[in-house]
């Protein structure tokens, strides 16, 4: 009887391990996210902290939670390293104010747009010669490497372009009067001015383009891309997206 009881207990233990193993393989433990944390107010590091904050950070954490992940790990890297990191499967998704373009869409799966942006021209306050994109012909322009601002600057005849790893570095070049202008994403430049940049700089001219930001997933991972879209749509419907948008931009998104 004792031996039979031991056999029954052993069988139950093995069964429990099998169930736990099956459950573990299906459980969503951790979503690994890549970002370029120098793009306030979308993603940046808190002062005197290693923590990343911003609209994108709050949004992807909410998406991960909606998708059922137990943990959302954010990894910082250069903007131009994000797509290679997806290809190498070092990260699951990338969110970094990344504009959806045809060229990028050949390399990754994009979520549906989560933010509508555009490009702005920033010049020094005492600069009265640059008032629009037409005035940038032959001028010195600072941009962040790999961005649509950099792509736009390439179209300007005779422009002398200097690329930097971050928008902050590009703006510092402007402050030092080593360039005539910076071309970058409108919400990022507006936030930069709001945080003290307006002491020496200003935005001029019209918004150069209309752009949609998307969350990038590896081209091979179509299932994850669909899950991200589903979670994003749920957050838009239940009001969580609007709450995060107002927190970072001070207003509700335009419908």
Structure characterization notes:
The protein has about 260 residues and is of the alpha/beta class. It folds into 2 domains: about 30-115 and about 210-250, D-Maltodextrin-Binding Protein, domain 2 (3-Layer(aba) Sandwich), CATH 3.40.190.10; about 120-210, Periplasmic binding protein-like II (D-Maltodextrin-Binding Protein, domain 2, 3-Layer(aba) Sandwich). Helices cover about 40% and strands about 25% of the residues. The strands form 4 sheets. A 5-stranded mixed sheet has the order 5-1-6-15-7. The chain has a 5-stranded mixed sheet with strand order 11-10-12-9-13. Strands 2-3-4 form a 3-stranded antiparallel sheet, covered by helices on one side. Strand 2 (about 40) and strand 3 form a beta hairpin. Helix 2 runs antiparallel to helix 9 (about 240-250). It is globular, with a radius of gyration of 23 Å. Mean pLDDT is about 90; it is low at about 1-25.
Brief digest:
The protein has 255 residues and is an alpha/beta fold. It has helices at 2-26, 55-67, 82-87, 102-105, 148-154, 167-175, 186-194, 222-238, 240-249; strands at 30-35, 38-39, 43-45, 52-53, 71-76, 93-94, 108-110, 115-117, 119-124, 140-144, 160-164, 181-185, 201-204, 211-213, 216-218. The longest helix has 25 residues, at 2-26.
Note the topology.
Elements: H1 2-26, E1 30-35, E2 38-39, E3 43-45, E4 52-53, H2 55-67, E5 71-76, H3 82-87, E6 93-94, H4 102-105, E7 108-110, E8 115-117, E9 119-124, E10 140-144, H5 148-154, E11 160-164, H6 167-175, E12 181-185, H7 186-194, E13 201-204, E14 211-213, E15 216-218, H8 222-238, H9 240-249
Parallel strand pairs: 1-5, 1-6, 10-11, 10-12
Antiparallel strand pairs: 2-3, 3-4, 6-15, 7-15, 8-14, 9-12, 9-13
Helix pairs in contact: 2-8, 2-9
